[in-house]
Amino acid sequence: MIVNGFTPGSITSIERRFRLSSQSTGILVSVFDFTNIIFVLFTVYVGGRGHKIRWVGVGCVLIGLSGILYALPHFTSPPYSYVDATGGGNSSSSGACDRNGTRVGDTCDSPGGASTSGLSNYIYLLCAAQVVAGIGSLPLYTLGLTAMDESVSNKSYGPYFGTFFACVILGPGFGLILSGSFLNIFTEISIPEGVTLSTSDPGWVGAWWLGFLIVGSIILLMIIPLSLFPREFPTTAKIRAEKANQAHANSGTEETTRAGFGERPSDLWRALRYLFTNPTFVFTCLGGVTDALLVNSFNAFLPKVFENQFSLSAGFSTILTGILAIFGGVFGSLTAGFVLKRLKLDIRGLLKLIAAANFLTGVILLIFLWHCPQQQLAGVTVSYVDTTNLGTGTNTNLTSTCNSNCSCAVEQFLPVCAGDKNYFTPCHAGCETDHGNGTYSNCACLQPGSIQTVDSGLCRTSCSYQPYVFAVVAALYVFFTFFARIPDLNVILRCVPDSQRSMALGVDSMLSRGLGAVPGPILLGAVIDQACLLWQDVCGTRGSCWIYDNANLAWRLTVIAVSLKAAACCMYLLAMCFYKPTVKEDSELNEVAGKETRGATFE
Q: What is the pLDDT of residues 350-401, one digit of tens each?
């Protein structure tokens, strides 16, 4: 589970290292869930009748191998070289403007330039690692949950499931924190001599690969203890017999529990037909689809949102995301488990609880409107001549009369600050003198009468407490998201016959991933790209985004998030309205649900 936190934590570094757009890394994230869709039915259909825990062990081996495969591009790609502000195209090695210089160094046609032209192709190797991880994760989240459900009573399932999902978020949360720590280490471990680079520089790439390699190697060993578990615990048969049947009426209980069902291939389609004519199951799955659209896409890019909307380093953004994920997710899962144990809700009560949690989450997501002031970049957001706002729809032009004969390169973003205005590089500020300590002077692009020196790095914005307010409220979003997941899972398991529980989990996983988790990161990545103000340009090829329009991105994220939560809330309310309990229920359940009205069915 820790490995699952490394991918979102490394998104920005992977984009910079391999010159990828957010839509491309969105595809990378989605490959994991797309793989789940392809293999989920086979896993639950075959593994559900086998040794479930041993299947989980095999999955751990695959997850470990995927971590090692994920780190492979670091060792097979050329060393990361952070080019000076001149991009190798200016006679001044310091990055200052040399009006009498000539362009030297690597060009697009030279061996140095050609060696890195195919960096974006490494996304295929990263996608292959995601495929292996996707296959390996399936047994844990389907067969592992079914084995747990078969081993605990209805009165005790709440804390067990709450603890499981607490671990589901605790693992990726710690993964994010570890990833953030590794991102504070330079990707090549040691910074080349003569290069001055810090974690706050836009071109910094941390050791994104290190966590995958270390944790992946450790996970390989999990096959040993998991292979020692029995096929069933001694109390499993007794617990299964004592559990009440709360399946939706006309859901094929008699057919799917008959002797020999599941031995013929045609039984698979019959089992699927019973599931898809169960309206409570269908609408609950659709609620999960809309939730997966939101959760998977926002979780993948949340560190990036912190980094760009609040001017934080990649490492600190990832650590902050991991902390809020741990506190919000763990407490949300554990709280839901104990609430369900205390309230002993039937299916209709569970669906009301889920809808209420989704409504509160939708209100909380308005926090995405919160962001820091936009960084002012000459030629992009403000004019070179004065402080006139250029607007977001204006074509950018980093060249002005004050730097037109400096032959400034644009391959790397090395900003310098003058007052509250940033320049793309010291060369673009027209600075001719480098003082060797990150300070430049004799800058032709600075306004007369203003400070005539610039300092390396982006200007500081008035953004001291905003990221922490956002983090606290975002933790509430995570809390209610995982709080709702526990009753959602129990509705899926309890509204179908016992014999179809593994299949129900598999179908739910297939739908939520296929219609939600797979397209979600791709679509959100495209939305984030639309808010980009300045793209990296490497030999005429677009790379990663250097700077985003904060206000534009905030509105886009908020509209998408709130709309999806509203849709999810509607789906769970429909599931509640259509639910029709079976005639035969145990006496305890009848006291709670016996007076409920009958709803319609799809048949």
A: 999 999 999 999 999 999 998 888 888 888 888 887 666 656 555 678 888 8
Domain spans of the chain?
3-81+116-252+269-372+464-593, 86-93+376-460
Distance CA 336, CA 159 (A): 8
Q: Class assignment of domain 3-81+116-252+269-372+464-593?
A: mainly alpha
Pairing verdict, β 439-443 and 421-423: unpaired
For tokens 């899926």, name the residue.
Answer: 492
Whether the Cβ atoms of residue 533 and residue 380 lie closer than 8 Å to each other:
yes
Count of CA atoms in the C-beta half-sphere (13 A) of 191: 15
DSSP, res 99: T
Q: What is the CA radius of gyration of the chain?
A: 27
Q: Phi/psi at 308 (nearest 5 deg)?
A: -90, -35
CA distances from 342 to 150, 236, 396, 403, 491 (A): 21, 23, 60, 70, 17
What span, in angstroms and rounded, lies between the C-alpha atoms of 138 and 145? Answer: 11
Measure the CA–CA gap between 440 and 452, rounded to whole angstroms. 9
Spatial neighbors of 126 by CB under 8 A, at least 6 apart, are: 14, 28, 70, 73
**Structure confidence by residue, pLDDT tens digits, 530-575:** 998 888 877 777 888 888 999 999 999 999 999 999 999 999 999 9
pTM of the model: 0.75
DSSP string, 10-70: HHHHHHHHHT--HHHHHHHHHHHHHHHHHHHHHHHHHHTTS-HHHHHHHHHHHHHHHHHHH
Contact (CB, 8 A) for 379 and 398: yes
| DSSP one-letter code for 165 | H
